[in-house]
Structure formats: C-alpha cells, structure tokens
Amino acid sequence: KAGVTQTPRYLIKTRGQQVTLSCSPISGHRSVSWYQQTPGQGLQFLFEYFSETQRNKGNFPGRFSGRQFSNSRSEMNVSTLELGDSALYLCASSLAGEYYEQYFGPGTRLTVT
Amino acid sequence: QQQVKQSPQSLIVQKGGISIINCAYENTAFDYFPWYQQFPGKGPALLIAIRPDVSEKKEGRFTISFNKSAKQFSLHIMDSQPGDSATYFCAAYGSGNTGKLIFGQGTTLQVKP
Prior knowledge:
The complex is a heterodimer. Chain A is mainly beta. Chain A has strands spanning 5-7, 10-13, 19-24, 31-38, 42-50, 53-57, 64-68, 74-78, 87-94, 103-104, 108-112. In chain B, strands 2, 4, 5, 9, 10 and 11 form a 6-stranded mixed sheet that branches. Chain B has a 5-stranded antiparallel sheet with strand order 1-3-8-7-6, with no helix packed on it.
C-alpha cells in the first residue's frame, strides 16, 4: 500500500504571498491531520478533516486554512505568508475510528523569504 | 494540561547499549501514547504505541514502559545500533480531542559505533 504523499516537497515563497500544500492519504484512510514542525516549537497540530469536514483545529491564526475533498485528499492554504511560517508541514492520515494511529507523509518544506 | 514533556533533549549511546527516553504528561484524559522515529528529511514514522491499561509493551528491540500513577512513560531501545540514530518523539492522544496528537519536544539519539 502506498504511503501518505505530499506535494510539493519543497517550496520557496515571499512574504505576503499565499501557498497551497497538498496531501494524499493512504488508500482507505479518511481522516487527515496537519502539523507544523519547527525547531523552536516542535510538532504542532493545525487541524483535522474527516468526510470533508474540519472536526478539530489547533491554535493557529485564520491565515491557516484547509479543506478535504470527497476522495479524502486534503489541501492546506496559508495566506499572507510571514517569515515565521517557514517550517516543515506534515500531514498524517488514519483510519476512521482509529484517529490516534496516524501515519505521516514526508512533509513539505516551506521557506518564506 | 495539554503538554507532554520529553527528556533528554539529546542522547549519545554506544553501539549495543540501551537508550532510554522519558516522557511525562498531566492530562489524565489521554488514552493512547505513541512513539515516533524521524530521520532527517523524512516524516515521523510510527514506532510503537501503548494504552494506559498496559504497563509494558515490547516490539523487537523497542519497549515502552508505562507508569499510570506517575503519568510517565518511557522508550527503551535495547542493543542500540548506529541505524537507530534519529530523532524520537513521544506523543499523547485523547479521544475527546479528535485527530490531535500532542508531541513532546523530541530527543536526538546518536549511537556511536
């Protein structure tokens, strides 16, 4: 079974721009969670989607948003990028009912200049 | 109450030795405790996990010890190998907080040959 895939793997953007990151979960997994990983703050939860609905949200500003499609693929969007948004963005997928057992993709490395 | 505290921040062990990483939590609503292993440039990989009704779980060279009364759990890597050199994260999950893993700050393990 293919793992979680994320595209693009690397991205360089300028302050003020917006960016969209994509995540394809493991086949059959319907829950997708997003995390931000930085050296200073570690791994922090952004939000979780199931059946195209956001069920949980972390403590991030409204510039961070996401969505999920009917095939469980998910996207996250960051608008008005700031230098502090530079991070590794990870998505994780899990089976319905087993939301605790999360499998991560390789991440998208976002650099904001 | 939502924090998971992990120690040590870094660890150097000789090949064949035992690596021990500790984590502590406060929220008694947590009901699933996974450990993840992350290599540079990769996403975290689920290594082993435990529920609070079990005091120990072993998978190969990896063992989780869980002390519910002390709200602490630890990862033991027996016969540590250079290939185990990676960053290890403990995490906690509460069923009432759908899709959200709360991570410790991570431990960078170096196994010297």
